[in-house]
Amino acid sequence: MTTDTAKRINYVRIEADQCKGCRLCVETCPTHCIVIGSKINKLGYQYARFETNACTACGLCFYACPEPGAITVYKDATPEEMAS
Ligand code: SF4
Ligand code: SF4
Q1: What is the pLDDT of residue 4?
Q2: The domain containing residue 18 runs over which residues?
Q3: CATH code at position 49
């Protein structure tokens, strides 16, 4: 049976222009969900990008990040939450 929860996934939003590319989230994530991309943000850093559906919403990347507001973790996010 299909339920609403079937459409939900764990999701991490990374604010590109608040990231300083320190890689702490990349190194911390136990399921390798975050990578540093090749694009440059307005601060001049190659910034982190959430890339996979293997996220467990553990929050470790959030706690590792030194930049307040750069990372938001959503557990069982709806498509609407991911698009907002
Ligand atoms: S919440 Fe946990 S599993 Fe998800 S990206 Fe962050 S560190 Fe990785
Ligand atoms: S820990 Fe924060 S500042 Fe460092 S790369 Fe990840 S999102 Fe960017």
Answers
A1: 58
A2: 4-83
A3: 3.30.70.20
**Ligand minimally distant from the alpha carbon of residue 25:** 2
Mutating to test ligand 1, I would choose from 34, 63, 72 the residue with most ligand atoms within 8 A of its C-beta, which is 34
Whole-number Å distance between alpha carbons of 52 and 54: 6
Query: Cα–Cα distance between 27 and 6 in angstroms, integer?
Result: 29
For 19-53, what is each residue's pLDDT tens digit? 999 999 999 999 999 999 999 999 999 999 999 88
Q: What is the pTM of this model?
A: 0.90
Token pair 């990040």 is at which residue? Answer: 65
Domain count of the chain? 1
- Top-confidence residue, 23 or 2: 23
